[in-house]
Amino acid sequence: MSELSVNHLLGIKYLNKKDIQLIFETADHFKEVINRPIKKVPSLRDITIANLFFENSTRTKLSFELAEKRLSADVINFSSAQSSVKKGETLIDTVNNILSMKVDMVVMRHPNPGAGVFLSKHVKASIINAGDGAHEHPTQALLDSYSIREKLGEVAGKKVVIVGDILHSRVALSNIFALQLQGAQVMVCGPKTLIPKYIDKLGVKVETNLNKALNWCDVANMLRVQNERMDISYFPSTREYTQQFGVNRELLDSLDKEITIMHPGPINRGVEITSDVADSKQSIILDQVQNGVAIRMAVIYLLASKIKQ
Amino acid sequence: MSQKVLLNAKEVNIILHRLACQLIEKHNDFSNTVLIGLQPRGVFLADRLAKILKEDYKVKNIKLGHLDITFFRDDFRRGEKTLEANTTKINFLVEDKNIVFIDDVLHTGRSIRAALTAIQSFGRPNEIELLTLIDRRFSRHLPIQPNYRGRQVDVINNEKVKVNWKERDNEDSVYLIEK
């Protein structure tokens, strides 16, 4: 019998290959569960989970909440907009107050990189990082790899290009770690200004020509341009970005193979990806969303089983 | 660790045929019946019984499924180990069906309790019965009894019943093992 090597999911960086395999195998079972007429199992009846979102989110928050409810956990939600954080309370105080209401697990999104790691050292609860600034977003990377595995059979040996705003993307970093751990080759592609200077030290290829990148890859993961994180102008105009780094049908048809298109959402239709590509058979964007619930159920289940009674 | 043979291959075979006949007596042509093997160990017995019913007794239309009860167990977080799931394979609804749960050993009855809850995810059955190869007497924690039993045995606490199947363990046999 195996179990996770970690007590928190703070980043893919802290996982090993076996952990990912265990999460995927467990997610397979949960995927079957969520396709039943009654989609709920009672495993986590005695677990309470707090979803703390210090930053906006729709998909991830809904996905986590659904996963928790499908496992029968009790759920409390918190978003910083309506909270005492605005009154000057510190993160540790906020979380400890919530934990004193007998909460076992915390799912947290926070604008500061490392917030999850910091919290895991100071509070007694299992922490799941649902995105910390531009650092990591482990469950997104897991569901991305899981979707590739589902579509192409396995992740090992596949060539994956991550296109777009690598600099501000937590999805990119977690994906790089996850894909490399499973033996895939990774390339990043985007405007030079949006590619971190030393990213090649992580062992990824760097390409600034989208056409070349797409010709190389089996899977293209299209990222959103994160305007909200940009303090300065990184490219002249959205139109110019689209011309150089947007994927459209014409471009896909000009390749000599059929590649798989992914997107972590939310999509800016017509910017990084056109509607006819997003809605095409090559795109597995909606499968990613469905798999997100199964992956999060697996992560929560495996971490919860390590919480001492 | 000592072990004693409870049933050998020939005895297992005779019992399986007897159980198949008992099922036919109750369920006739199996038109409204489904056999559900409980993961991980009941599925071998269920598969074997379905094969005997099909090949030796010419029963057509046997509906057979495998049910995993991991997420419905009542000992989550109570042991040291993470409970690992197995595959559930039920590609039909059980609404109004007569279900026969099939498991190799009936001990405390807790797995069957979990299975009774788990099967509700697939509809509201008309009736549920239980078939087990080995019924460990006087060991129940819950008021659950089999409708069809292969052999009833008395086992003391430091002993364990191990059922082997040709498909997996290279022989059909049942052992009583002293831990």
From TrEMBL, chain A:
It holds the Pfam family OTCace_N. Residues 157-302 form the Aspartate/ornithine carbamoyltransferase Asp/Orn-binding domain. GO terms for molecular function: amino acid binding; aspartate carbamoyltransferase activity. Keywords: Pyrimidine biosynthesis, Transferase. It catalyses: carbamoyl phosphate + L-aspartate = N-carbamoyl-L-aspartate + phosphate + H(+). One of its GO terms (biological process) is 'de novo' pyrimidine nucleobase biosynthetic process. Its EC number is 2.1.3.2. NCBIfam families: asp_carb_tr, PRK00856.1. Heterododecamer (2C3:3R2) of six catalytic PyrB chains organized as two trimers (C3), and six regulatory PyrI chains organized as three dimers (R2). This is Aspartate carbamoyltransferase. It comes from Flaviramulus basaltis.
UniProtKB/TrEMBL annotation, chain B:
Coiled coil: none annotated. Pfam families: Pribosyltran (PF00156). Keywords: Glycosyltransferase, Transferase. One of its GO terms (molecular function) is glycosyltransferase activity. It comes from the Bacteria. Residues 4-158 form the Phosphoribosyltransferase domain. Gene3D superfamilies: 3.40.50.2020. NCBIfam families: PRK05205.1-5. This is Pyrimidine operon attenuation protein / uracil phosphoribosyltransferase. It comes from Flaviramulus basaltis.
